[in-house]
Amino acid sequence: MLYTILRNGFHNPITLITGIFASLFVVFCTMPVHECAHAFMANRLGDSTARLSGRMSLNPMRHIDPMGAVMLVLIGFGYAKPVPVNPRNFKNPKAGMALTALAGPGANLLMAVVFIFLQNLVGMLPASNVLASAVYTFLLYAAIINLQLAVFNLIPIPPLDGSRLLQLLIPSKYYYKFLRYERYIVLVVFLLLFLGVLSGPISEAVLWLYEKLDFIIGFPFR
Known about the structure:
Elements: H1 2-8, H2 13-44, H3 49-52, H4 66-75, H5 93-122, H6 130-153, H7 162-165, H8 172-179, H9 182-195, H10 199-217
Helix pairs in contact: 2-5, 2-6, 5-6, 5-10, 6-10
GO molecular function, one term: metallopeptidase activity
Main location: membrane
Cofactor: Zn(2+)
C-alpha cells in the first residue's frame, strides 16, 4: 500500500498518512479476523487444533507474522501465521480443509462490504469536511486492502488458502507433490508481487470487485 502510494505520487500528505493507518488497522484488526475465521470454521467442522492452540482469538499478537505485516503495509499484500489444522479430525478431510480455507477470504470479503457501506455513509457528508474526507479515504483503503487479501489468498498456490481448493480438483498424490515446492513457490510469488507482474492482474480483479460491490451497496445512497 505505502509503495503504491509513493509510486503513484500524492498531492496531500493526509493521503499517505491515512493509507499507513489503514494498513496498520488491517494488520492489527482485520487480519486477526481472517485467521480467527479459519480457526472458527475448523472448530465447527470438528478440528479443535487451532482453538486449543489459542488461535481462535481476535488478539493480533497470536496471529501476526512480522514479515507478512511489513509486506502488507508496503505493498498491500501480506500474510499472518498459518492456523494449525489437522484434516484427520474432519469427517470429510478434503471438504473440511476447503471450507476452512475459504473462511479466511470470506471474512475479508465481509469486512470489505462493511467498510464500503460505511464509506458510502461518510460520503454523504460535505466534501469540504476535512475529517470526513480523511475517514472516507481510510475506509476506502481498508476496503481495498481487504479485497486484495481475499483475492490474493484465493490464488490456488501453496501456502495460500486457494491451494486447499486444489485438493477437491486433483488427486492427493499430485497435490502433495505440489506442496514439496511450497517454499520456492512462495519466493517466486512475492518476487512477482514486488516487480508488479502479479500485482497488476490482482489489482484489476480487486478494482472490478470493488466497483461491483460499491454499485450494489451504494445504490440506496444515490
